[in-house]
Specification:
The structure is a homodimer. By secondary structure, chain A is α/β, with parallel strands linked by helices. Chain A folds into 2 domains: 104 residues, Alpha-Beta Complex (Aspartate Aminotransferase, domain 1); 241 residues, Aspartate Aminotransferase, domain 2, CATH 3.40.640. Chain A contains 12 helices and 15 strands. In chain A, strand 14 and strand 15 form a beta hairpin. The first copy, chain A, is globular. At the A-B interface, helix 1, helix 3, helix 4 and helix 9 of A face helix 1, helix 3, helix 4 and helix 9 of B.
Chain lengths: 357, 357
Amino acid sequence: MKTTFAPGPSQLYFTVKDHLKTAFYEGIPSLSHRSKEFEKIFASCTNGLRELLSIPEGFHIFFTGSATEIWERSIQNLVENYSYHFVNGAFSKRYFEIAQQLGKTPTITESPAGQAFNEYQIPDETELIALTHNETSTGVSLPMSFIHSFREKFPKALIIVDAVSSLPYPAFDFTKIDSLFFSVQKGFGLPAGLGVWIVNDKCLAKADLLLAKGQSIGTYHNLPTLYTNAKKNQTPETPNVLSIFLLAKVVEDLLVRGIHTIRKETEYKAAVLYNTLAHTGYAKPFVSDRAIQSQSVIVTDCKQHVEAITKALDKNGLVPGDGYGEFKKTHLRFANFPTHSKEHFELLADTLMGLKI
Amino acid sequence: MKTTFAPGPSQLYFTVKDHLKTAFYEGIPSLSHRSKEFEKIFASCTNGLRELLSIPEGFHIFFTGSATEIWERSIQNLVENYSYHFVNGAFSKRYFEIAQQLGKTPTITESPAGQAFNEYQIPDETELIALTHNETSTGVSLPMSFIHSFREKFPKALIIVDAVSSLPYPAFDFTKIDSLFFSVQKGFGLPAGLGVWIVNDKCLAKADLLLAKGQSIGTYHNLPTLYTNAKKNQTPETPNVLSIFLLAKVVEDLLVRGIHTIRKETEYKAAVLYNTLAHTGYAKPFVSDRAIQSQSVIVTDCKQHVEAITKALDKNGLVPGDGYGEFKKTHLRFANFPTHSKEHFELLADTLMGLKI
């Protein structure tokens, strides 16, 4: 069995197969989403996430079909006119474009691929500041101090963080952000088909305000409807019940390991790979500024050696992720998620070190 | 192992468990949705559906998170102002309400629960006529002749059919409709989390027209974006890959059985149950007009006997679906999907006939 390091859909979390057996044994796929049994699964999933990520009171957890959907829903529900987007790659850019498509007037500050944001001017009227914690396409992570710096400077704006390819690793300070989201096929190691959207009461109030003003905020997945249902541990539509069940189970497993352990292990594994890249001549981190090097998606610039490296890794059962977009032929990406073990990373490092190119 | 007759999420199609094993063995859950392997699965699924349902050229097949999502997307993409809704229960009503929520001016014609539509007046300016083939809450099916009668009378309007709880049973004439949709957790017997939306070129043209007029038609799941991706056998976002794979496999299985066989078997099973209900004193079909009795969701009015009947069925491993909404305590619903065998229905009939109440 090979181990894939693609940053998503990711290698499954190693317990998923067993949980799926349990799900079938317990008849989860045929469960009504209006049943008490489903409500228990919903509660177990959201309570587990709350504990794992230290999500405080006043924040609510909703399910969507994907994180892409949350891009759209968040603009619809949290923005009348002005959103502000930090863009440093394909995914943060797509979020900006969705705001444009929805007829808003988004402002963008762009930094070159792989580099930090140095200067920005956020207009006073900004309603939503959109930050992509981990730009999956290039391997840049925004420093937590950067993310947490906006609340004080822009107290009127809502702050939303796309943490699609970094959670559960980062420890956000929920007093400094208003919304956070991810999808399950990355760090949580589940099959794709579920987005998780965390919002606070200020977000709910903003959606209510926009609705009162006559703005269309969508229907079954607008914030008021998601909230009304979530209070009953339900969803507006028939959701991906199986995925919510699997997420609840994987979160339980992660809680047993302990989030602090998972975070430290993530940092250790990233260190092993970054250290290796510092010693090989033929591959280096695409992101050279250590302050913004991602811990969860490590992007390597391999230039003309992509094929040779891929072959060598494959011999040891390791499958790197392709580069993204314009970097498809020169980069390799290595996801560092909870399902990837220390041993996987050590083998990865050994293989890279032993390579004669 | 019990057999559930809940109309959805339904009893799984009996081959799903094996296909899931194959999926894990083949690494489907970790497959990139931009890979050739995914494109093959997408093509196999849509080509299979095309064959099974005789979907002609000029129609396109897209995937969403749910049929609820298609209610919203279809109004966004196919209606500038005026939709017309035939409402005879909770689900057809929700579709109407979504049009209201999206700021349109929908017109409604309502018939009492369990009864046919006798009179209606569709205004000339109607852009979309929305028909719910099978109202899951009450067990009314619109006759095919009724559904197919609108094209000629209203050649300017688009005609969309919600066939969530009836497909793959009904044989639609695609020259008489423009769009059709369903979700996989009913007749196809899959875990919930995927909607399937079939539209023709006229629908695509309408969405383009609305977009050109400056109307918001949504973003990643608007029709032009879904179409651009589907042409490449792709989806705009990371979809529920596993569900698309399972649907492809179940459709293959249904093709082996043959759609004509499945349809005739469905009618036989429905006849067995309706015939039984004609002979029992304590339970009768909620829908008395045979012309509109659903073949796929048979709703029985059991009055005060719901508990006694449920208990008797349970002893034989048969689990009926609850009544819907106001009928929760007096109705039982029996899904008649391809996963339910003749033997299931014969046992159901025998148990009901043998009941002493």
